[in-house]
Amino acid sequence: MQPAARIYVAGHRGLVGSAIVRRLQALGYGKLILRTRAELDLTDARATQAFFDAERPEYVFLAAAKVGGIVANSSLPAEFIHDNLAIQTHVIHSAWRSGVRRLLFLGSSCIYPRLAPQPLRECDLLTGPLEPTNRPYALAKIAGIEMCWSYNRQYGTKYLAAMPTNLYGPGDNYHPTHSHVIPALLRKFHEAKLRGQDTVFVWGTGTPRREFMYSDDMADACVFLMRLPDEGFDSLLGSDESVSGRFEPPLVNIGTGQDVTIAELAALIASVVGYAGRIEYDPSKPDGTPRKLLDVGRLAAAGWQAQTALADGLRSAYVEFAAGAD
Ligand SMILES: NC(=O)c1ccc[n+]([C@@H]2O[C@H](COP(=O)([O-])OP(=O)(O)OC[C@H]3O[C@@H](n4cnc5c(N)ncnc54)[C@H](OP(=O)(O)O)[C@@H]3O)[C@@H](O)[C@H]2O)c1
Q1: What would the pLDDT profile of 203-225 be if each residue is shown by its tens digit?
Q2: Close Cβ partners of 239 (under 8 Å, ≥ 6 residues apart)
Q3: Looking at the 3D structure of the chain, how many domains does it have?
Q4: 77, 92, 246, 270 — which has fewest CB within 10 A?
């Protein structure tokens, strides 16, 4: 991916898309093609094709999607499966028609079976039932992986699917009920501190284990993958199962390889925010999957590892949140 390459970042204002834009600009990439949702609604097939025909990007980072936490997924299942299937189908198909050289499709670690052995390996895909609370979203992402694989097999495209773990960082969504666990807890402890509240209730039992990665690390991993020389990139595209007999989708996990319990996370966020009150748990709220830790061996073998420790990332995220909140 040469510095003068024409690069489309779909979803450039989101948590991941904005971090990818920061990373590409820092590396001197000057021909970024960016459109807000108002300028280009990717659920509109005709508009998406017209955009690709006009702009002819060479590389695509597909970071546009309908994303949210447990409440959003359980209350808006139709939107999660429709919007994600529509966005990824239109972008992947238009990319093929306009001759895109490489495309990185972003999924999520919820694609793996609820009770698969930990850590989760790429080959565990489609080996068991999914977590019901976000199955519509997960199935859309699995369809996206299969679409990349199918286009690679039929048309010889170079489309890779990357499965990030839970992400957090600058520009995250702090919506009180629709956000992910880290922005939800940062906001909850911050408001409790300001109000002088003596107890904060955290959803669930506090026992589930989760892996978290800072969004700038995620962006660095995405750009690292797209800048790999042909041999390295092609080796991640898996194989044609009908020829190799092996189940090797074009899939790579992106994570830190370390996890914490929700209780440990809550205690860490309380100390980052400076909240000194009590933390109580509300077991009437859903815990979700008991554990979700990614095996990041494939990415490490390609030469990449996460740099930001959880405590440091949380501090940076809180500084940005607090600056906007007050
Ligand atoms: N956040 C996580 O913890 C996490 C974890 C694993 C995987 N991922 C994956 O990473 C990718 C990016 O997620 P994120 O956290 O960056 O999400 P996000 O912050 O919600 O950003 C999503 C972006 O997509 C855009 N978008 C949504 N619908 C669109 C449409 N119809 N047309 C055009 N643009 C549209 C949004 O535009 P607006 O700015 O106009 O809303 C937003 O900029 C997703 O594929 C997600 O599955 C995220």
Answers
A1: 999 999 999 999 999 999 999 99
A2: 246, 248
A3: 1
A4: 246
